[in-house]
UniProtKB/TrEMBL annotation:
Keywords for this protein: Amino-acid transport, ATP-binding, Nucleotide-binding, Transport
Similarity remark: Belongs to the ABC transporter superfamily.
GO biological process annotation, one example: L-amino acid transport
Top-level taxon: Bacteria
Lineage of origin: Bacteria, Bacillati, Actinomycetota, Actinomycetes, Kitasatosporales
GO MF term set: ATP binding; ATP hydrolysis activity; branched-chain amino acid transmembrane transporter activity
Name of protein: ABC transporter
InterPro entries attached to this UniProt entry: AAA+_ATPase (IPR003593), ABC_transporter-like_ATP-bd (IPR003439), ABC_transporter-like_CS (IPR017871), BCAA_Transport_ATP-bd_LivF (IPR052156), P-loop_NTPase (IPR027417)
Domain ABC transporter: 5-223
SMART domains xrefs: AAA
Pfam families noted in UniProt: ABC_tran
Keyword Nucleus set for record: no
Keyword Nucleotide-binding part of the UniProt annotation: yes
PROSITE patterns assigned to the protein according to its UniProt record, in alphabetical order: ABC_TRANSPORTER_1, ABC_TRANSPORTER_2
Length: 224
């Protein structure tokens, strides 16, 4: 199995609370992986540890980038990890509230898809471009944040409960976009409370109280 990134023996503490207990999380390259767990299981912490948002108290983060030899990036900050080719959609505070929608879509500069790509994916944003992002509804803010991630050139997309506040039709549209990105060779890691029925995931891990308790590979459909 060729990997994109992995946590190895990862531990994360928030004061006296340890949120991850020596987690090993290999993320296969060019596949869609789902990290499943209830609230408080450590899902968000695992994604944040991969992206460099929270530091490890023990363990390592290894960046493979589809290559045979891994590079340890445990000490790299979020900006340097993004330059390697990863993009994170957090569950909260995913937009710059004081900027307009248009400014949010171009804030990543050449690393982002820009306004046209964002509106193509979410036409609903077209009429909202001059609005300040902080004045939008939760679902509208989610579309702004998703457009930045989905239209970026990042090879690894980390999405934490991306469907929060979104209508079913929009969620289905995002699932289709993610499937197309994986088919093109990108790597997607979703953090969800349950396995999504609407998307053809490849690998799944279950987190419970900060530890991986199950791993599963989706069976290939029979050849007809």
């Amino acid at each position: 199995m060729t990997l994109e990134i992995e946590l190895r023996g990862a531990r994360v503490r928030y004061g006296p609370l340890e949120a991850l207990h020596g987690v090993d999380l290999p993320v296969p390259a060019g596949a869609m992986t789902v990290l499943v767990g209830r609230n408080g299981s450590g899902r968000s912490t695992a994604l944040h540890a991969l992206a460099g948002v929270v530091p490890l108290t023990a363990g390592r983060v290894l960046w493979h980038g589809g290559a045979v030899t891994a590079r340890e990036i445990t000490a790299l900050d979020t900006y340097r990890r993004s330059r390697l080719g990863m993009a994170l959609l957090p569950a909260e505070q995913a937009v710059f509230p004081s900027l307009t929608v248009a400014e949010n879509l171009v804030v990543a500069g050449p690393l982002g898809g820009g306004v046209d790509a964002g509106v193509e994916l979410f036409p609903e944003l077209g009429r909202l471009l001059p609005r300040t992002a902080g004045t939008l509804s939760g679902g509208e803010q989610r579309m702004v944040a998703l457009s930045r991630v989905l239209t970026s050139p990042a090879r690894l997309l980390l999405l934490d409960e991306f469907g929060l506040g979104l209508a079913e039709e929009v969620v289905a549209r995002v699932h289709a976009a993610l499937t197309a990105l994986v088919a093109s060779g990108r790597t997607v890691l979703l953090a969800e409370q349950a396995l999504p029925d609407e998307v053809a995931w490849d690998y799944a891990y279950e987190l419970r109280r900060g530890a991986i308790v199950a791993a599963r590979e989706r069976e290939a459909p029979p050849v007809t």
